[in-house]
Design a protein that fits this description.
Length: about 140
Amino acid sequence: MIRNCFLNISTAVLLLTAAASVCAEVVVIVHPSNENALDTKAVQRIFLGKEKKFSNGTAVYPINQTEGAIRSDFDSSVLGRSSTQVAAYWSKLVFTGKGIPPKEVSSDADVVAAVSADPASIGYVDSAAVTGDVKSVSFN
C-alpha cells in the first residue's frame, strides 16, 4: 500500500516536471538601461554574428546558452533554424575565419548574471528566470 502510494506520488511529480519544461517560454533579455528597439530580425542578426552593434551604435555582446532545451527553443523560435543548423553555420564561419560565435554559459542564472553586469549584453532565458536585474524584450 505505501509502496503504491510512493510510486503514484513519484509518477505525478515526474509528469508535472515534464509538463513544466514543455510550457517553458524563451524570452530575450537585456540590461535594464538598454533602450534600443529590437525586433526578431535584429536579434537574429546579432546572434548570427551579422550585427555587432545595437541600433544606437553601441557594441552588442550576445550570450548563448550551451546545448539544451532553452537553446533549442531559442534556435528554432527566434533564429528559425535547428540547433544543428546553427552549429553548422558557426562551424563554417569559424573555419573560414569570418566569425566568432557568441559566448556560451551553462544556465539561465548565468545569462541573467552576465546581462545584468554588462549593458552591452543580450541573452535569452526561460521566462521564469527573469529577475528585476534584467529586462525582457518585447518584439515590435
